[in-house]
């Protein structure tokens, strides 16, 4: 059991009658105790905080009256305390429990709160968290590498009774500031990432979305491809071209095995080893072991490309690799880069989980609570 959990001892003893020896009648003495642990749970409890602000007046001077201040609250003049607000935010954005289900949970505890009230709380919380969100965004833009990905999400307008698809984007920093900062846009146009990444200089690891091309064209941002994305195309091609797909996947097994070897080598370092030391090891191993694999893979792709139909699954997989070759192998030239973009894609999977529970965004206030409360 985790050592940080509170322990609640429950000692079971024999009664005086049970302690008596059946042979001689003497009282038996305790010689040891058997211990075991059991995990239990106490449901969350609501309580009311009564804020009492004392007022003082000078008995001799007229008008010298002063009232004690109250600590700043997450939502000024709002009903929820910080603990309840944090609980609702966590359940909605981390555990993907919709507000209508939270509404029913609260009702079971005797507190009637409408879903619209909970929505207003999310908007108020986002407003309070916005300075922290802006700081995290600023720090992520100072990183040398940013991982990004996006996914669709339903956008609803209850007044106009329409629904549309909007986008949620994640921008994940590197070892300097490993924060995940989200952004919301109403469309999948390139304006979203272009505006968010304005002023950024460094590596951007993403899929091959054409909306990033304008960012790379400026020269300040260098494209790093996602090999997990490229590999999946060969997995899909197994259905129609098993032999070639198996060969390509064998190359990828070698490349990912090298990354696993690097992790094992890094695990031997002292815990206080700095990132430049770790990056130097990654670069050395990749240059020694991964680059030759990439050279063999490139030769194989050149041989096979003329023999497959361009519009077939295998032709698409090979074409994808050839079109993004430099970006896909760029990680071998730096120990600070990753072989794939899985760190961002895994965060996006939480959105997919939320979609299964009917997750959507309201038009007002334009999806702002989601990025601020999820970061």
From TrEMBL:
<dbReference type="Pfam" id="PF13005">
    <property type="entry name" value="zf-IS66"/>
</dbReference>
<protein>
    <submittedName>
        <fullName>IS66 family transposase</fullName>
    </submittedName>
</protein>
<feature type="domain" description="Transposase IS66 zinc-finger binding">
    <location>
        <begin position="18"/>
        <end position="62"/>
    </location>
</feature>
<dbReference type="InterPro" id="IPR052344">
    <property type="entry name" value="Transposase-related"/>
</dbReference>
<dbReference type="Pfam" id="PF03050">
    <property type="entry name" value="DDE_Tnp_IS66"/>
</dbReference>
<dbReference type="InterPro" id="IPR024474">
    <property type="entry name" value="Znf_dom_IS66"/>
</dbReference>
<dbReference type="InterPro" id="IPR004291">
    <property type="entry name" value="Transposase_IS66_central"/>
</dbReference>
<feature type="domain" description="Transposase IS66 central">
    <location>
        <begin position="77"/>
        <end position="357"/>
    </location>
</feature>
